[in-house]
Structure formats: structure tokens, C-alpha cells
Amino acid sequence: MTGGWGDYALVEVADARAVAAGPGPVTLQHDGREYLRVGDTGWYMTVCWCAGPGHVVRVWDEPQWHTVRTRVWRGDAVGSGRAWRTEADQDLIDDGVNGFLAEAGLPPRPRGYVWFLAAPQTGSWTSLWRLIAENERAIPSRAPTAGEAAAAIDSAVRRLYTVG
């Protein structure tokens, strides 16, 4: 992909909070295509980068729309719960995502969006995930690098999407 993350369409939706933070899976319709919200990880962002702006859109997002799991230890007692995501929590997420992208040789993704991947032109999202998994299993290393994972992802994406 040439260009950058700014080339991906920003889609206005009536309820961005529900689309960005609602329980999954979340899909949206745009220009006659169905898009699936993808996870907030470097792996999913690599899929989006490989698919390119012709197959991925973004929607505004705010950290405070999300919750995070929490764990508290007091002596031998352990409690868990949920709390609203803070800017510091979002910093940790962004550092992880952008660290993976950097290791894969890709640019950092911008903050403040949730990303949606169009259904493949041939096959389905399930067929895409399966093909990526097959490609990743073929990597000789037991712990593939981000670059190796990106190559496996790119190969699968190019089989199911028309990528320019």
C-alpha cells in the first residue's frame, strides 16, 4: 500500500459510540458494502493496511467510550471488574499496536478511530481468517516476527481482495 492511514475513508455514523464500543461483532454498511469492526491490535491493523483504503473505513472513537478489565489483589483475595478506559490505558494500547506495526515495517496508525474491514470480494471474513492462519502456520519459526506475520497476512489479503 502506498499513501498513508489518512487515505482511509472516515465514515460518519448516527451513533459513533455504539458502533465504536458496542458489544461485537459490529458491522456497518457503507457505499453498498458490509464492513466488520476489527480488533484494536497490531495484527488487525496489519490486515487493514494490507487490504488498503479501498476495503477499510474508520469511524471516530473516544477512549472513554470503552471499558477495560481490572484486577485487584488484597492479600490472598483477588477481585476483578471493569473500569472506564483512561488516556493512559489508550496509550498502552496504541504503544502495542504501533510497536507491532513498526516491527512489521508499517507506519503507526493514527489515534482516535475504530477500523472496519469490508467483506472480501471472494470468500468471507471467515475464509480470510482461515487463510491467514494457514499462512502463519507455514512460517517455520514457532514465534513468527511481526514482519513474517505481515507477509502471511498480505498474501491472504491479496488472494481475497483486489488490492491496488
TrEMBL record:
<protein>
    <submittedName>
        <fullName>Uncharacterized protein</fullName>
    </submittedName>
</protein>
<dbReference type="InterPro" id="IPR046000">
    <property type="entry name" value="DUF5956"/>
</dbReference>
<dbReference type="Pfam" id="PF19381">
    <property type="entry name" value="DUF5956"/>
</dbReference>
